Amino acid sequence: MKCVRCKKKAKILLKRHNAAFCNDCFLYYYANQVNRNIRRHKMFDRNDKILVVVSGGKDSMALWDVLAKEGYNVVAMYINLGIGEYSNRSQEVVERFAQQKGLELIVKDIKKEYGLDIYVLAKTLKRSTCSVCGSIKRYLFNKVAYDGGFSVVATGHNLDDEAATLLGNLLSWEEGYLARQSPVLEKTHPKLVKKVKPLYTLTERENLYYVLLNRIEFLHEECPHATGARSILYKEVLNRLEEESPGTKHRFISGFLEKGRKHFQDVAEKLELKECKTCGQVTTTEECSFCRFIKVCNQQER
Amino acid sequence: MKCVRCKKKAKILLKRHNAAFCNDCFLYYYANQVNRNIRRHKMFDRNDKILVVVSGGKDSMALWDVLAKEGYNVVAMYINLGIGEYSNRSQEVVERFAQQKGLELIVKDIKKEYGLDIYVLAKTLKRSTCSVCGSIKRYLFNKVAYDGGFSVVATGHNLDDEAATLLGNLLSWEEGYLARQSPVLEKTHPKLVKKVKPLYTLTERENLYYVLLNRIEFLHEECPHATGARSILYKEVLNRLEEESPGTKHRFISGFLEKGRKHFQDVAEKLELKECKTCGQVTTTEECSFCRFIKVCNQQER
Description:
Number of helices of chain A: 12
Largest sheet of chain A: 6 strands, mixed
Oligomer: homodimer
CATH architecture of chain A: 3-Layer(aba) Sandwich
Strand content of chain A: 5-15%
Order of helices and strands of chain A: EEHEHEHEHHHEHHEEHHHEEH
Largest interface: A-B, 24 and 24 residues
CATH class of chain A: Alpha Beta
Radius of gyration of chain A: 20 Å
Number of domains of chain A: 1
CATH superfamily of chain A: HUPs
Strand order of the largest sheet of chain A: 5-4-3-6-8-7
CATH topology of chain A: Rossmann fold
Shape of chain A: globular
């Protein structure tokens, strides 16, 4: 098996592209895909101040590294969500990488800074921990970016994530979510920051190969709450389809972006955006869920 | 496990409905579903002359039987496609059932009546046998119904078939097919007959149970060309999703019909419908594919 680019011995086969690469050419391909996604969707350029959200997992570590190497102006943010040792280990991974590479990192600790506890919230509000975590993360992504003068928030969502989300949204025909699923969410309010997913065409496997090749430390374990999550089932069936017909996931996502998504634009929620009476951040209710979370945790402590 | 309707001992569990039935109540449920689908989508009523297309398999045999029992005015049509012993065995099954029940049956033999050979056509035209068969069947469904004064053609497509087709159309975002997938295709030309799928909410398993309970003979084997077909893979992954979350297939199809399908109506093909210069049937080209097939087979024979 020879590298399609330099004809030396290939090390990785990407069936969906019907291409094999040596390690050097894989890194070239990888950076090329990221840069192409950034340009194609006008995500940002070298003048933008970019907040990269990192969890310590392979995808976000790959994103942080590749954007820094490609000369983008990036600052990373890590949120400690208080998920026991998992959170502590992932914070260490992220902090070590920032120190080794001399990269800027913002650490947010929801317990220390805001008194939030996802387990108390999940129990009191009868919501899943994943749903509580999601609300907290979305709030902090935007608040930290807005307060810090960042023009864009970048996340490490990969092709497998996006295909699984799309499949889930289609199985139950979530029109609103279908209207909004995109590698770029534009700024729709002065206090909302643009969100982008530069790795949306790269698979989990490619991100893994990227961090291994670059000897980037990352947390191998999944969040303990992810086990049994619906998204894992969707990834499993998409892998089965991909196995029989390489390129299925990419065709599914790119077809959606080119031909499917536009049909749902008429339902793109016409929700009235307000500013939270407590913190001033954008919300659709009087008080945002983050401020309500803080009150719930304060009451439980008393 | 007790029957949800009569509280006697249940014989079949339908997880997706969270319901178990005894045999009698299952048959009641089954006929109920069929009648509800017919009414809900205004498929036909007892004044309509209905052409039921039968293959000898469990789904179409169940449809033929239930429509006859429910007092609809049905005539069945079987098409012998010349697929060796498979076609001969299926024709026998269908003929025996018609005779036993005293039901009217039209048999069409594409070799004897039109000189068509799907293998010659597939090879000469470089098309799959499934695609050739599909064209021939669609042509004859409409021609026999139109010439015979039928107001509607009914086929045995089940929930598994419809969900697999929908998944395939979504994976490659076939906008035109998405616009047209429906349990009812209305008459859009004076020479086109309405097409309906009264079993679209019933699973393969439920149709199988129906024919077994009623001791209806059917052909157990699949068409020999179906092996390895894409639709089998799609059914496999949908079964995996259904296993983890009963009701997934039904939610997928009903959500599409209620919330998804409407978004694609703007692409519902605005194809100009013409009448074939040779046979007069509706086509989008000068001469329909069926008439071109006949010429190909005639030339090959010389």
